[in-house]
Description:
By secondary structure, the chain is α+β, with helices and mostly antiparallel strands. The protein is built from ten helices and eleven strands. The longest helix is centred in the middle third of the chain and has 20 residues, at 197-216.
Amino acid sequence: MPESIKVFAPATVANVSCGYDVLGFAVAHPGDEVIVHKKAAKGITIRKITGDEGRLSLDPAKNTVSFSILKFLEHYRLDTGFEITLHKKMPLGSGLGSSAASSVAGLFAVNELLGSPFSKMELLPFAMEGERLACGTAHADNVAPALFGGFVLIRSYDPLDVIKINTPSKLFCTIIHPQIEVETKDARSILPRQVLLKDAIVQWGNVAGLVAGLMSDNYELIGRSMRDVIVEPRRAMLIPGFEKAKQAALDAGALGGGISGSGPSVFTLSKDEHTAKEAGKAMLKVFKQLNIAGEIYVSGINKAGPQVVG
């Protein structure tokens, strides 16, 4: 078994429009990289972090890349020690599952160094603990797709029931990260505490339609189903230009889109790479008109999850 390893874990889009807290998917890029070395002494050390502008803690108990590993080692009573270098290659606080990518990369790397004794499903609860550290809730709609790849449905948390869904082969994702800040706590605080039955019925139908569209490679059904009548109308007010940017992408040929996680990133899905690029240009133009800079990522869907890259 190797003494060190480098692992990439992908960014993710959570909610996927109508699937609040129950759907997510992984993208080919961006993502995070970790380099993990075995060490003689017990415990976890974070040697270095790059790409975070000094915002992340080197304390293993306060960083998701190490906290999930600590929980994993504690649960299985493993005495092996590890040293971690984390390269953040995606923006923090972007709604792209930055903390989830770090947790998944670290756990996957450690499992590989131990000879892969644990399945991805066995690693999932510990990756979720990283999310608990990051935002106070051990949710899975970012870590599950980052770990399993592709589209993932979280059917239940008690008991935990996670299902990987088919990914249509021609599907491409466009993500634009506008240079504005949306606090997760703010994005959650404005959500309705009660939902009208008529809205719930629309939402259930759209979630079912989206899953059916993905399973059957029905791109038109995917597009028709990507409509959120509960969460997106509230969160849209936190992202200037969101509605216009989304409509511009649809006019450029995108199937549908929405807010990635709690924002501020906005995503769309398209049935070819050219359309995905045109959707990105259209969205960027809208934000530029508002004097908001943004980064664009056009990517296929990552079907594999984390990967050993060195």
